[in-house]
Fold each of these.
Amino acid sequence: MNSRLISIIRKEFIQLFRDKRMLALILVIPLVQLFLLGYAAVNDVRNVPLAVFDQSHSVEGRELLAAFQAADYFKLTYAVDSNDEMLSLLETGAVKAGMVIPPDYAIRLQEGRAQVSFILDGSDPTVASTALAAAQLIGQSKSTEMMQQKISRMGSTVKIQPPVEVLTTVLYNPDMISAYFMIPGVIGMILFAITAILTATSVVRERERGTIEQLIVTPIRPIELVIGKITPYVLLSLFDAVEVIAVGHFWFGVPIRGSLLLIGLACSVFLFSGLGIGLFASTIANTQQEAMLTVWMTLLPAIFLGGFFFPIENMPQILQAISYAIPLRYFLRIIRVLLLKGVGIESIQGDMLALVIFGVVIMSAAALRFRKRLD
Amino acid sequence: MADLIAALHLHKAFGSLQAVKDVSLSIPAGQIYGLVGADGAGKTTTIRLLCGALKGDSGETRIAGYEINRQTEEARAHIGYLSQRFSLYEDLTVLENIRFFAEVRGMQASEWRPRCMEILEFVGLAAFKDRLAGMLSGGMKQKLGLASALVTRPKVLLLDEPTTGVDPVTRQDFWQLIIRLVASPEETGEVAVLISTPYMDEAARCHRVGFMRKGALIAEGTPGQLRARLNGRVMELRGSPLPLVKQVVSGQPGVEDVRAFGDRLHLRLKEAYSPQIAASLKKIIPAGGGTFVDARPVPPTLEDVFMALAHEENQE
């Protein structure tokens, strides 16, 4: 390796380790994001607060209520005495769902045509749709159960079966834990954000502080400057990736089913996209703030359109088309299938190719713009 | 011996602003060349063109024989450059800075340590080698800049206002360093120095001086040659009250410029001093209500030359 390159890398490392606050940020931010997204950004709906207006005051009414509480989906928070009271609780958000058991519930149940009404706060669609499905499911199983009891009482031993039963099997993430979906995403986001932001700011810092002027007048070649400056950040980003995967695995229990080698390869290939974007941003920006903002402008669409939170398949056609230009999209797919499904290279080669192409294109564009001159 | 710095017909425009117009320079080894001019005259741009930090619109620059835009890296291996703004790493120590610049200019690991210490001794920073550059005083920063420019023994030293904002004692030190560098080629090798400065007393220390105005090099020569342009045309006048006297003589034909100089006035005359001029002033001043004390010719300073050249500009 050439000695100029080594000097630049050493210099960058000294500066990096001297800036303790920055270093701490680089190492701690991934963990903060991991814990935030691992715990807070969960779509799993549990313990939806429920208000009940039980007009029947019957044993049967209480049984139904018990069935609702038995599952973790609902938590009985209020027992109310009027519809108005229930509506005002829904309005204030104190409860997300309300159930009204009519006065004649017990009698109608005997007749086999009881009705209860279920009111949902639809302002949070995620909660509402899950709660709705849960309510229907609980209701259904309760009626099956009661029908069975009725038949038993009539002296029959026939077990009733619904004519069609759908047997569901959820592969890869059977308990459907959101963290398994989120944490691989965090790896992608961290790799992208850290490399892009650090690369951009470290190059722009030389310009902002005037040190670029001294560098220009040395025999350093532009390519040596670029490689020398980004090497420490590449290593740091990979370290961050390891950190996130390790904590994700040992703390959150995210499985690692694919080969570590492939995961490492995917991370390394993906890094070039972040580096390229950072480098490109550094050729546009004059100050570190500008560089940060430029990177942010690519980061936000990447997170929203790359499938970090929301499935790309549900987006309008136009946004889906845009998402093809977002490297995070490919990496998220790769890392999720590698971690959760444990597939081999053949299932990810298309996405890998896309990442390589993106990396080459953005790096070349940045290299073309990157000049070792003041003007 | 060929010139270490040879620039021919340099031009550089920023948009519609012609920052450098047809500047040619030739500086041989052992020479200190001073580039002077008002702010915005094009000194910094010229230096940046010479070291290739900017690409000129036309013209050719050779540094130690290498063309700066075609043989950039070879040329730069011979350049020690100190920019106007402190441009070393404030978060690196003195030694780390010097080491970095020594290594990226191709110094081997075995050479850099003794050489770095030698150069730090030379500029008087050896005791501060482990201090962060950001914690140095302004003068020490400039010395560190000089040290890292000198560490690889470049043949060409380009210094852009190295002493601006530096205290007088450090300025003296700084100049002594540069003079020692040029004066002892057997010790330091042949060196050519280009230094820009706003201070005329510093320009007077240079072997040759070039005046820049509006991007062009309008006068060039040894300090003596430049001063000779005004030989006999500078007169010192004493009288009181000074503001009144100044007002009276300012309007006189034959007087080009009047400047207060402490308790006396310096007059620049359109033609050489003659006793007749003194005699006429002796009459005019009392007539205006002031007192004439004394008038005599004095040798012109570079500052006078500078003001005269600036004056021509206003005439245009």
Amino acid sequence: MGSKNTSETPVGVIGAGSFGTAVSNILAEKNKRVLLYARSAEKVATINASRECAGHKIHDHIEVTNDLEYVGQSCNVIFPVVPSANFRSMMKELAPYLRPYHILIHGTKGFDLNIDRKKIDEQNPLSREHVRTMSEVIKEESSVVRVGCLAGPNLAREISDKKPAATVVASHFDEVIRVGQNLLRNDRFLIYGSNDLIGIELCGILKNIIAVGAGTIAGLELGENAKALFISRGLVEMVHIGKALGGNAQAFLSLAGVGDLMATSYSNLSRNFTVGNRLAKGETIDEIIASMEEVAEGVKTIEIINELAQTYGVRCPITETLHRVIKKEMTVNEAHRYLMKFPFRAEIDIV
Amino acid sequence: MRKQKVRYSEIIPRTQQWPIVQLSKNRKAFIEEVSQESFDNLKRITRGRSLREELEMTVYREKLRIKANPWRVDPKDEKPFWRSIQERLADSATLPPQEAKEIEEKLLYEIVSRYSEEIAGNFKRNSYRFAKAFITFGFARLLNAARVKGILSLFSRQLDLDDKIHIVGEPEHIRKLAKKGTVVMVPTHFSNLDSILIGWVIQFLGLPAFIYGAGLNLFNLKIFAYFMNSLGAYKVDRRKKNPVYLETLKTYSSKALRRGCHSLFFPGGTRSRSGKIEKALKLGLLSTTIEGQRILYQEETPEKPATKVFIVPVVINYHFTLEAPALINEHLRRTGQERYYKEADEFTTSYKIATFLFKFFTKGSNISVSIGKGMDILGNYVDDEGNSIDAAGKPLDPKDYFISNGEITVDHQREQEYVRILAKRIVEEYHKYNRIFASHLVAYTAFKMMERKNPKLDLYNVLRLPDEDTVIDYKEFKKAWKKLRKRVLKLHKKGKVGVADHMLEKADAAIELGLNNVGMYHARRPLIKKGDQIIIQDMNTLYYYHNRMEGYGLEKHI
């Protein structure tokens, strides 16, 4: 493949949220046809009428559709970007139209729970086999094996505003990385490759926890020192959890690890940061979730990791504390006083 | 009362038409083709080294091997051969590049041809027939003599080998697949007996002879060499790890597969040292199935659609592994810091094997061979027609795995990943088709109880517990055993493991059967019952038999 994808085969994007739209716009710059799938016919009609989606203008090369079969059958490469809570059901609908020649590169930074919460108890605690990353969901639900993920500091707003950025395409297959690079790369958008698929996925998922916490610090106006302290401790915690879940430390130092963590922990454009920020200002979690248009994955991730950490005996004070805040067992102020007293051991050799 | 026995007819009655017979008829031409293809591949793949460096490395390693680790089967002219290669390589170093290159390629071709000749099997129809008859007839006679008492029973037809060896799983399925495409059988590997056993299973099921890679060391023994050759074995030399050899070996397997020869290899590489079911499979030979399938698709025409390759996992279950003491000691020596004495492997002389076989047939220890469901090259199950079915029960075309942008493409890294996926699937299937015997469970229970009683000790210390500490109260033992059996049966119900029929008997009876069978021919039986106590006599072999049941998460329930 050359620098421009000149073939007429369209590229698919599933999920017309802000990141899905941003990905479609990048793809549309190099590809003549991009199919963007939105869940409802009404939404398709609105987008088509305004040529605007999730607050972003959409490129002329983008065709919006409500037909998964059409997407599956016309595209060889598809980017699913839907919230983790809907990911598995979306895959179930899409799977009949997928074949092993398809390449799927997802951009969802959350976990899938494949077990009914009620079945989780002390006898059968939540464990890694109940918690799946999106690449694992894709492989479980379809015959697609060439799977990858997108992760990195990619605030959708900035991408749509054509500001420079970079991302990581992670996959066990060099072919997938190559295809991702060819489809996405442009003058303002750099693509790095990684073979550590699970590691990179975990980076994107776990950083959301820290982003929520960083938001609370900003909300309490505790200053930059406190935030830097929090983020760096947060990174250590991410590595510990990540290792317990089958990732390796290197990934966390990459663009998708530290890079993404920085962007989301410092920006009002990040949903997870916003959740923390508003918690600190005194709103309850239910109010915040009800008023947000899109899902902040961090909240669900905090709950899952809190439980997993218990199962695997990993100490993760930040996640535990945030969990108590969300469960209203603690105020944000108490949480910070608690963390300041927590006897963190010396800097740990994490790599 | 005698049960009606299943008899399988030969699926291709005319041996003339067997692909392996065709192959051996044109042996010379085939070896030449293998040499040519390996040669082309090797020229293409450089691995960051020049051809000269590759050759120098090969010569160096081969000379080292000849000196450090000579075997009886090695040909006499090895030394002069490598010396001559080395000399000509050295002489050509000063030639102009073009001429030097010609010589290098010539030398490479010579080496590859030598390797192909060495690897190639020597299948002979007549000796296959003889070996087949010998195994079936001879073993059956031995069995009858031992079991039915009295010399006249040598002529009794009451017992056959299939009374001793239970074939379970999907035997009909593999017979159907063998007619639809090329079968690659991948059994677990615990004992040197496996090769002969599988050979018997293949002919018993009425399948045409398979080709298979057998360790060259087995050819050290005349009796083995004879059976191996006649059963279609080609030779794999574990000592030769140089890329030139490995490429030739892979090409041989891949080409034979493409010719439609059913093949067999032990993907674990060597016998499981620890007694655990293989987890890390050797990917080299396995990769030839994927590469072979891709080439078949590339060469297909509308008139002649590609043959499909089917992977069939097979699990062999013994109560007892003859080599267990030697294997486990080797395993512990490798993993532990402790020094263990090297014992002679029981398969070193024909006499020992003969004694073992006699013991095996004269005492009541059964073997079961579980034939798994066929899979395509990515580990999707196939139906009786050979169609791949995905996890959702929907048909899929494996050709799509090689397609990128609408065309079949060659991507070695992609295929490497596919091999990993396939290997993982095979291991999953092994666990599923593993049949748990009472003997495995008694070993598992006893060993885990020891570990539980000594939570502070690491494995090596548990293995060295003094005699007075290795006694278990029978009542306690029975309780733990029953609890584990319940878990095992639960797993069985979910289709995650197989269970031998005798496991369903009353606890006392099943435990007794287990105790009587676990490691029954070892000089020291690992586990015995004395009064109301269970005594562990040999921790290492107990550990070995216990390992068979690792990987099911049963340790939580003791």
